């Protein structure tokens, strides 16, 4: 559920009229709802309330400082995957002991940054990384708390580009090798082994792959304990999907997921961490765009928007479906007709939808892409020198620009001309 609902035929973001924000900010822009972000965080928090836990928001989904501060102030931890994300989490006031560091290629500099600034744990993904981490920690005279990410060889049944839990994927260490790797970790002097990490993919719409993976983690916990390791924390990753198309069957809810976690690993007495990104931010954000032209093509109509693939890459990259709705609803009786919905970028891939049934729309009308809060703004670029799309946040009846649209001069002045020119 989200807080982008129609009132008297006009799309509202909580209690703010989306068209009014568009008039003040210009289009395109991302718009986030504070209430939706908090509700999604709280749903997970409640779903795990049967035991000690921390919901670490996977901030790669949407990492604006205002979003991080909203969630961090509510008690969320953060899952970071780069030095930049670590710095962002700290800048938003999240304490180090609520930050977990994931990612397959952490550099020495990133490791040092996190060890010096404070960290809850590193989720280690390989033996070479484990050795470097130990060396850096020793050189700083500290112990690095770690889990090791195991790859359970489970099919997440999601898009190939976002599945991570099969043995052919680059993530984690094969679960069959885990006992040997934990044995080495225990010998390394800069490390303190505290648990196990697993993450099998994103936009999972069934519970079964989670169940298979978590059962394997439960078995491994018992084996590793028998080997003498202290396993007190399980990081179970993120990945729970959201309904992108209203017609589709809805994916399981956080409550179902929480019950599954309890059923599979609850008996082990471990502290549970999860790393949801999409489910927290996805339906908490929309992308608002304006129709530049309605163009009659050969046997089809194009809706040419001022938003493009550089602003929202998901349809071009994953063939993702986003609902596209008018910001001001047409009369109830209006007939739907098919449109190809495209942006102005010079590639045919700059297509959001083909033959999408829409109510009549004209030049200048506003549309909103639903479910665009996760992996939207963070994956935007300035391709075609289109200014990085701004971000706006609503809270009740107030709104604020949380990232400005850069001016052309700001964009151009980021370049420097070498002195020989
Ligand atoms: N933890 C780890 C280690 C991850 O790699 C990810 C996502 C998450 C947590 C959060 O997963 P979520 O709850 O958001 O599904 N750009 C793609 C999604 C990439 C996901 C990458 N990793 C998209 O737009 O669909």
UniProtKB/TrEMBL annotation:
The keyword Amino-acid biosynthesis applies. GO terms for molecular function: diaminopimelate decarboxylase activity. Signal peptide: none annotated. Pyridoxal 5'-phosphate binds at residues 239, 275-278, 375. Residues 30-373 form the Orn/DAP/Arg decarboxylase 2 C-terminal domain. Substrate binds at residues 278, 314, 318, 347, 375. Its cofactor is pyridoxal 5'-phosphate. The keyword Amino-acid biosynthesis applies. Keywords: Amino-acid biosynthesis, Decarboxylase, Lyase, Lysine biosynthesis, Pyridoxal phosphate. Residues 36-281 form the Orn/DAP/Arg decarboxylase 2 N-terminal domain. Its EC number is 4.1.1.20. CDD domains: PLPDE_III_DapDC (cd06828). Homodimer. Belongs to the Orn/Lys/Arg decarboxylase class-II family. LysA subfamily. Specifically catalyzes the decarboxylation of meso-diaminopimelate (meso-DAP) to L-lysine. This is Diaminopimelate decarboxylase. The lineage of its organism: Bacteria, Pseudomonadati, Pseudomonadota, Alphaproteobacteria, Rhodobacterales. The gene is lysA.
């Amino acid at each position: 559920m989200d807080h982008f609902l129609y009132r008297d035929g006009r799309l509202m973001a909580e209690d703010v009229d989306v068209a009014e924000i568009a008039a003040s900010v210009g289009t395109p822009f991302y718009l986030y709802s504070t209430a939706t972000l908090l509700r999604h965080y709280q749903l997970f928090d409640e779903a795990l309330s049967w035991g000690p836990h921390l919901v670490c928001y996977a901030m790669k989904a949407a990492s604006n400082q205002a979003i991080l501060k909203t969630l961090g102030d509510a008690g969320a931890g953060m899952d970071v995957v780069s030095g930049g994300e670590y710095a962002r989490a700290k800048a938003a006031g999240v304490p180090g002991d609520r930050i977990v560091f994931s990612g397959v290629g952490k550099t020495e500099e990133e490791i040092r940054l996190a060890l010096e600034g404070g960290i809850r744990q590193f989720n280690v993904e390989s033996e070479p990384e484990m050795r470097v981490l130990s060396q850096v920690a020793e050189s700083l005279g500290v112990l690095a708390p770690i889990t090791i990410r195991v790859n359970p060889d489970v099919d997440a049944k999601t898009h190939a580009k976002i599945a991570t839990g099969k043995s052919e994927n680059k993530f984690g260490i094969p679960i069959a090798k885990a006992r040997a790797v934990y044995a080495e970790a225990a010998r390394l002097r800069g490390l303190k082994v505290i648990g196990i990490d697993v993450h099998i993919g994103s936009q999972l719409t069934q519970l079964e792959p989670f169940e298979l993976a978590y059962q394997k983690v439960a078995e491994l916990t018992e084996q590793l304990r028998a080997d003498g390791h202290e396993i007190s924390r399980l990081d179970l990753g993120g990945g729970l999907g959201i309904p992108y198309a209203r017609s589709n069957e809805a994916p399981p809810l956080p409550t179902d997921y929480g019950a599954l976690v309890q059923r599979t690993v609850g008996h082990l007495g471990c502290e549970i961490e999860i790393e949801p990104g999409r489910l927290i931010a996805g339906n908490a954000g929309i992308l608002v765009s304006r129709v530049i032209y309605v163009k009659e093509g050969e046997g089809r109509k194009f809706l040419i928007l001022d938003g493009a693939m550089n602003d929202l890459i998901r349809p071009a990259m994953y063939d993702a479906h986003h609902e596209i709705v008018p910001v001001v609803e047409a009369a109830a009786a209006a007939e739907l007709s098919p449109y190809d919905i495209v942006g102005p970028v010079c590639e045919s891939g700059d297509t959001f939808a083909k033959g999408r049934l829409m109510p009549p729309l004209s030049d200048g009308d506003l549309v909103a892409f639903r479910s665009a809060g996760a992996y939207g703004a963070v994956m935007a670029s300035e391709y075609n020198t289109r200014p990085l799309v701004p971000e706006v946040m609503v809270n009740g009846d107030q709104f604020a620009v949380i990232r400005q649209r850069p001016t052309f001069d700001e964009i151009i002045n980021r370049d420097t001309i070498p002195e020989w020119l």
